[in-house]
Amino acid sequence: MAGINSSSAWLHEHVNDQYVQMAKKEGYRARAAYKLLEIDEKDKLLKLGLWVADLGAAPGSWCQVAMKKVGKNGRVFALDILEMDPIRDVEFVQGDFREEEVLNRFNALLNGRQVDLVICDMAPNMSGNTVTDQARSMYLCELALEFAQEQLKPGGHFLVKVFQGSGFQEYMKAMRETFATVVSRKPKASRDRSSEVYLLGKQKKA
Question: Pfam families of this UniProt entry (predicted)?
Answer without folding.
Answer: FtsJ
